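During the no-cost extension, the postdoctoral fellow (Dr. R.K.) reprocessed legacy sequence entries with the updated structure-token encoder. One reprocessed record is reproduced below for audit purposes.
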Amino acid sequence: MGKPIEYKHTYETDRFYIVGNGKIRVTSNQKTGEIIKGGIVEKIRVANLDIYSPNTKLDYRISVNLERPREMPNGSHSFERNKDRLCYTHQIIKAGARGSQELTHELEVEFIDPSILYEERLKVENQQKNRYFEIVEHFLNNIRVLAKKVL
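Re-encoded structure tokens follow.
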């Protein structure tokens, strides 16, 4: 029997700061105002793959991003959003649905620890036994199931 699905509901505020050519996101708990663990990051987009899915009620995008920890920026933030986030974690995959004050909705599916995928990719490159394609297939199947289940 596998690990159970864990559930967490949070209310967070993201504040965005423009620093040099980049953007830093600072995430805090709405109730306490405290910055969450790992809540100050610079998010760098590497690539996006937009997928048109005519047999489901929604399309989806696979994005590859780097998130680098940063120090608290100086000055005032340029943009803020409040999030009402539901998060489900199962094995190596985390799915989070969130809404914001602008009434947008987003479902994010991500690897809890992306280094696992990276290590498996290195094994592929070194022609070692690996689980890379199995892990990627598991990840994509999660997205496909969620896309089919949307109301």
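The chain has one domain: 6-149. The first helix runs from residue 115 to 125. The remaining legacy entries will be reprocessed before the final report is submitted.
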